[in-house]
Amino acid sequence: MIVGETTLDTMTILFDNTIRAVDSDVNTEGCEIIDAKGAYVSAGFIDIHIHGSGGADVMDATSEALETISRTLVETGTTSFVATTMTMAQEKIDVAIDNVRECQKRVSGAQILGVHLEGPFINPARQGAQDARYVQKPKLASIERHMDLVKMITLAPEADGAKAFIGDIREKYPDVLLSIGHSDADYDTAKAGFDLGIGHATHLFNAMPPLKHRAPGIVGAVLDDERISCDIIVDLVHLHPAMLRLTWQAKRERLILITDAMRAGCMKNGRYDLGGQQVHVADGEARLPDGTLAGSVLKMNEAVRNMVKHTSMTLPQAVRSVTELPAERLHLEKKGRLEVGCDADMVIFDEGLGIIATYVAGEMKYQRSL
Question: What's the pLDDT score for residue 370?
Fold first, then answer.
């Protein structure tokens, strides 16, 4: 069993929908016994940045799409996720978020924690796979009716109105995680944004200026600031393994792994839609016709495996980066830990990070076929 940065042997977890006991000596009389048979058990994985999987996308704005994503993610050990939108027409964003609100409690697999707005408050100079036609100036009025669901907002601090927007969010919605991303800010502008209340960086290195020795930019500002957490896409496409190692050395307990998966996650190679744009998926890469990376097809268990393989991160440390750390950043008090009182979101996996079984609120939602 993985708890924090420690692996414990011969432990028993007593649970229903929440964890009732964790000990080496638990009275299990009258209980169903689940034998992990020497496999690893950890808290369920949390993905704070994911657009879709299984052929469905959050922006499809249908109950079927969210159900498909939810059911697919448990196969990867993910027990909860933040439904991530894209820079599209405001009415499409509104409909997608309203759909999340309606379906949040009805999905049958991984739970939906809320919404991550990846845009539309970005810099078109660093649009990546976002559609620059729909970029907006940051303003709370355009999203305020959705703030009951919003957990995270990716924005460019150099955009007109960003300073006032950050101030409004910090004052009215202090638990919302503001993240720098799809930004062309220089080092000083990024640091000023951190001082205002930005506390995180979205897919560090990607959709932002490159790190240079005389112009460290956003990457340098993040690596140089202990206050700021960041997330990275560990598919070995978005980042070279050397950058994984350097980021881990610099950020340690402030580093979170994400998938940034689009609808082709857990699907075959082919052509898929992302925010109205055609994406070609082949050999583990998702790209627009011009070659721009368009999210990923990464699975969360693969992200953990890649970090353990290519960096000095231990398995417990890698697991913590997809469980306890994202829960902390999103103020999820009952997620991300195998502790009494926490939700019984758990995953059982083998030494190769293959998922054996996934439990959400104490119910088995996935079991690997023998």
Answer: 62
Active site positions, annotated: 260
Identify residue 267 by its one-letter amino acid code.
M
Secondary structure (DSSP) of 260-291: -B-TTTTS-SEEEEETTEEEEEETTEEE-TTS
Output the six-digit token pair for 266: 């857990």
Beta strands in 5-74 (DSSP E): 6-7, 12-15, 19-23, 40-43, 45-50, 52-53, 56-57
Residues 6+ apart with CB under 8 A from 60: 52, 96
CATH number of 44-337: 3.20.20.140
The answer to whether 167 and 193 are in contact (CB under 8 A) is: no
Side-chain half-sphere exposure of 351, counting CA atoms within 13 A? 2
The pLDDT of 306-312, averaged and rounded, is 98
Angle at 79 between CA 73 and CA 80, to 5 degrees: 95
92's tokens: 């499409």
How many whole angstroms separate alpha carbon 66 and alpha carbon 108?
Answer: 10
**Is 254 in contact with 199 (CB distance < 8 Å)?**
no
User: Is residue 4 predicted with pLDDT exceeding 70?
Assistant: yes
- 175 exposed, middle or buried (CB, 10 Å; 0-12, 13-18, 19+)? exposed
Please tell me the distance from the alpha carbon of residue 68 to that of residue 204, in angstroms, as a whole number: 28
Please tell me the pTM assigned to this model. Answer: 0.96
> What CA–CA distance (Å, rounded) separates 143 from 172?
13
Q: Tokens for 334? A: 């009952």
* pLDDT average, residue stretch 323-340: 98
Residue 234 is predicted with a pLDDT of 98
309: left (phi over 0), alpha (psi -120 to 50) or beta: alpha
Burial of residue 9 (CB within 10 Å: 0-12, 13-18, 19+) is exposed
What average pLDDT does the segment 138-167 reach? 98
Angle at 267 between CA 263 and CA 269, to 5 degrees: 100
Q: What is the reported pLDDT for 125?
A: 96
